[in-house]
Queue: 2 jobs
Job 1
Amino acid sequence: MFADVARIFIKSGKGGNGHVSFRRELYVPAGGPDGGDGGRGGDVIFEVDEGLNTLENFRHRNRYVATPGEEGGGRRMHGKNGQDLIIRVPAGTLIKDDETGKIIADMSGGNRRLTLLHGGRGGLGNMHFATPSMQAPKFAQPGQESRELWVRLELRVIADVGLLGFPNVGKSTLLSMCSNARPEIANYHFTTLTPHLGVVSLSGDRSFVMADIPGLIEGASEGIGLGYQFLRHIERCKVLIHVVDAAGIEGRDPLTDIETIDRELEKYDPEIRKRPLLIAANKTDLLIDEQGTGSAVTRLKEKYEPQGIRVIPISAATNTGLPELLEEAWKMLQEAGSDATVYESEFDLSLVGNVEMLPIEYANPEKGLFTVEGPKIEKMLGYTNLEAEQGFRFFQEFMVKQGVIKTLKKMGMQEGDTIRIYGHEFEYLDTEEYDGGNATDYVDTEFWKRRAEKEEKNA
Ligand SMILES: Nc1nc2c(ncn2[C@@H]2O[C@H](COP(=O)(O)OP(=O)(O)OP(=O)(O)O)[C@@H](O)[C@H]2O)c(=O)[nH]1
Ligand SMILES: [Mg+2]
């Protein structure tokens, strides 16, 4: 089967835990804390690989997990970082969130490399947590959780010129005759199952990329045949060449072929029909009287040239008429302008599912001041009005429920110490008797600053 869609599970590495240990030296009964930091977890990175033109590799494997960071060690040893996982995809791959179908990234144009999931940060070892009042901290920071996501990959070939038409009309033969591509050619339907790209070189250093898109049939837009997946590729072509078998060797009429495929394009995406179009009437070597009144070439010209669509008779097999066709395609490309569609991201990666955000990502205890950081807290502060009593109580509850207070107490926080979070300061009140020692009191930093300034002035 043709593989231009895939669904895969990706997961970054968890951060290694910080380590708890104490120096052991001869003649020193109890040394200070020397637990090292955990290593960083591996990232999941997508990279464009020019050598690929299908998503076939993803059929055999659908789990992609980066390695976790290792735990820190004694003697301040830093844990080993996890290895990044690089996932190679063909240019033109759309990465979507599987659950919502939203576009995360379009690996085309300038987007060659993307870190989709960051690995977890390593936790700090207990060597960071010694304070005058807590000289032997038995606490180390856990590593940050990994992030995981199911994503859908969809390949949309990017080419300047796309060849479309019924199966067996000679699209692959045409591509092989005028470019470096070597697609398979055979006298049966659906020989080509994956789009092939070739570079067409014209005189004077001009070149463009041409795509041989697998054959379309009636009902393609409803998923009949293999068509639907292929219609996707046409979306990104700036100029289309509709190839028909002018000799009608399969008994179909080329005019009907064009109408049929036109209807499929219309159903799939009416925008595509507005693309510049050219008709290549192929297999003219089999026609006895190409210019005759009843010949397909003449009828095609009569019908399409008044609409401004050029019909160019060619024979891909005998290499006749190709220069004219390619020159015309080039001219239309120049008129069409240069930018290919690059899809915008619609997905906020910072909200990636299943991320167990640690309330505390970083905490630095020194002399009664605990500086705490963490995305979850930051977010919470963003929508809480601390000046309002209700807002403050809400925040206080959050700090307790998320275990922040408990963690800080483990780190040695005592009554009267200050917790500083993104510019806000809180005083910790050890109110054991009525709420288990979880209360905090909000301190307006600005207020204290102003007061300090005033005192200085007065002194
Ligand atoms: N006589 C003649 N035969 C041709 C010409 N172009 C292609 N053929 C033959 O037509 C058959 C189909 O050609 P392909 O290039 O594989 O056709 P296709 O459009 O790529 O077909 P699918 O991949 O199935 O969609 C092959 O046997 C070719 O040799 C031509 O100009 N003249
Ligand atoms: Mg083919």
Note: The longest strand covers residues 148-155.
Job 2
Amino acid sequence: METDKLREECGVFGVYSSDPEINVVPLVYYGLFSLQHRGQESAGIAVARDGTIEARKGMGLVGDVFDPATLAQLSGPIAIGHVRYSTAGSSTIENAQPFVSRFKLGSIAVAHNGNLTNADVVRELLEDAGVGFVSSSDSEVIINLIAKNYKKGLEKALTDTIQFIKGSYALVVLTEKALVGARDPHGIRPLCLGKIEKGWILASESCAIDAVGGEFVRDIEPGEIVIIDEHGVLSFRYGEKTARAVCAFEFIYFARPDSRIDGIDVYQSRIRAGEILGRESAVVADLVIGVPDSGIPAAIGYGRATGTPFGLGIVKSKYVGRTFIAPRQDERERAVSVKLNVIKSEVAGKRVVIIDDSIVRGTTSRRLVSLLRRAGAKEVHFRVCSPPVRFPCYFGIDTPHRKELIGSANNIKAICEAIGADSLAFLSTEGLLEALNHQGGYCLGCFTGEYPLPTPGEVGLAKQNDL
Ligand code: SF4
């Protein structure tokens, strides 16, 4: 349960084996386990074998949905999988992915991470053309567009579809004979390519390639489509060349620290963010601690840069999963203590710097400050290794309504007072870019309000937050 964080929408994974006797479903299962942090509401696997596509999906964690009996029903040399946390489309089994479509020319399955900003318009056009929908998911829009264009051939159907849809997407598509991957023209959501013996992997994050014993090959480029079949990996680009704008929050919080995205090591970027934070806003203190998990590398970096001793200070319960009932607003602060607790012997009598990856609503920060004071901390200085979140995300990340974002209506002094800290500082936007090596471009929309492409509101398609 994360009540006070932005939440990732989905993780995708796909495997192609050139040996028809190899069953890749167990690999997809393990790959999805390593992407579980990207979505915990539903999980699914679709597999191609002998000219048909079979899928199983359900609500819950990968381990809940796929017991040995369910896994045994799926077998084949090409498969895709998906874990989901819903933002666009509600949390129901109809919206679980992958989506499978069977039509005259064959079958395809699609799994998608991201958010289409023109899904409503495309859906309306398809409905006018007689296409029926069973879900509110963007992926069903994509699969119906591909199916509509399929008679032109796979390559053309994909490029036509992708040129039509707008927004953020990392897609894996399964046909009866091929595995396909595509990344939106700005590369907002990550997707990478890996190699296994006699085959290939596509994954949202490189940690999932490692988990199945594969070898990371490269990131799929923004605006690139790869078709993997008996001929190998065919790569081509579509549309006009656009500027890369990878989601900066992948590095700050969403991605696992053992992943690399677009050439940046996520763990090292978090260490650097902490070092820069230390340079920008050091305070005299006896101890620096990080809020698990992503605040910890930043606290190590802050400690290195300022000479402040690093300690653990906060423990996170590993067992608070999705079965934990989402608390009401007034219960949220208390609920933080179920998930996070302070090691009193480490913080008592000390001037403590506490580092978190972000402040969204502020409820977790307020509670942590109060827990530290109750544990005997003499001073509590809050540091955040990202700029204030002030604006919503339109590209697949669940953001609270703007009025609930503490950084939206309050200045730093007011936020500091609200969370009860002795001092508060955020990483600057320049500092964040420096932590990301200034390499390529990044989406910083939720910090700056400047987005890499028109938002639904701007094109008259208000769909997400009623701001
Ligand atoms: S608006 Fe924020 S969360 Fe959304 S894609 Fe951009 S950086 Fe990521």
Note: Confidence is low (pLDDT under 50) at residues 459-467.
